[in-house]
Every structure is written in structure tokens, then in C-alpha cells.
Amino acid sequence: MKKITVAIDGYSSTGKSTLAKQLAKELEYVYVDTGAMYRAVAYFAMQNKFIGADFFDKKALIDSLPKIVLEFKFNTDLGFAEMYLNSENVEKQIRTIEVSNFVSKVAEVSEVRSKLVEQQQEMGKNKAIVMDGRDIGTVVFPAAELKIFMTASAETRAQRRFDELQQKGDNVSYEEVLKNVVERDYIDTHREDSPLVIADDAVEIDNSYLNREEQFAAVLELVNEVIKTN
Question: Is there a contact between 115 and 44 (Cβ–Cβ < 8 Å)?
């Protein structure tokens, strides 16, 4: 069966990673969560005091980029790969609201994007990959055979993210999460380098009223159609 590249873009908290994991498992493809890569760099910046509530030393972060080694290591118990930063498993640390508050600012830095896009393109050179993020179909894999763009209302996405953080035991309010979602949307769509936009040939999916099973079934049908016609 022909192998293709599936590029999934969209706003924060639209379930891109969940869908991408489902597809990769079903197709036996490699799954890459590019958001985790940017989160890991943001976490590195936080740990090294390069970024905070009222400051961002971009030069210090750019100068430190050669010291940042990112790897995905497959966890057989979980059934998916986890993010490692300089040989440390940071999967849990990068999913906090604190990292969410800074990740879009870090992702604005052109030097950061350049470093990560190069790595992402290398990961997908042999196809048979499902990758999700903000610029996969427009920058990383503009020739991807299937491009999906996911969206939902800010309120719906904030509620999903709030529920997820509550289940993890994080002490956050819905208002705080909604504020983060709205701010990230603005930064992601207004940055100069690779802003979040829908590719001309992408299939847009508003999943405000879709459950995971309905969404997966619809996208899997799209994948199978593309595989048959390519």
C-alpha cells in the first residue's frame, strides 16, 4: 500500500495530537508531535531563566540552541513516543499551563522554527508519517498528500483543556485557560514567521460538536481515499 504524509494543523486544544496518534496507530505510521518540540524548547528557556512573565531574552535562547537535543522515544506501555530534552523525559513537565503560557512566544523566534523545521523534515523524508502542529501543511510538508486543518470555538477548546488539566491535578481556573487559548490564537496567527493559516488544499474540520470517534472515522475515510487515488 502506498505510503503518504498526513499533515495536521490547527488551533491549540483542538485535539490534533489525539487524532494524529489514532491515525498513526491505525496506519502503522510514525507519529510526530511538533507541539511537544516547541514546548520542550520553551521549557528549556524557562529552566534557564531566559523567559518569564515580563521578560524574554531571545538572544540567550538563540545562542543556546546548539545545546538543545530533542528526541522522541517510544513508550511501549503508553503506545506512543514521549518527548526527551537532553536525554531527560520531559513529557509531563511540558504539558503544564506555565509552559502553555510561553510556548507561542518561543515559537515566534525564527531561529527556533528553523532548527525544528529542519529536524521535522528529516523525520518525514521517507513518508509514512503523521505530523501535527501549526505549519506542517504550509511550511514543513507543503507537498503532503493529505492536509487537515482543525478548528473549534475558543470556549470549547478551553473547556477541553481545563478538563484535561483538572484530571491531571493541576490547580487552574477555566478563565485562566480561556485567556491562554485566546492569547495563543492571536500570537499563532499574527507572528511574522510561519503564521497559523489554513493551506489552500487542506480539509477544514470544525470538531466543536464531534466526539473523538466521529472525528477519527471521518478523517480515516479521507486518508483511505487519498491512498487509493495516489
Answer: no
Span 151-204, pLDDT tens digits? 999 999 999 999 999 998 888 999 999 999 999 999 999 998 999 999 999 999
Binding-site residues sit at 10-18
Residue 25 CB partners (closer than 8 Å, separation 6+): 31, 79, 80
What is each CA distance from 117 to 136, 193, 194, in whole angstroms? Answer: 9, 12, 11
The CA R_g of the chain, rounded to the nearest whole Å, is 17
Domain count, the chain: 1
What global pTM score does this model have? 0.84
Residue 136 belongs to some domain of the structure: yes
pLDDT tens per residue across span 41-71: 999 999 999 999 999 999 999 999 999 999 9
Binding-site residue positions for ATP: 10-18
β-bridge pairing 80-85 and 88-89:
antiparallel
What is the domain extent for residue 217?
A: 5-223
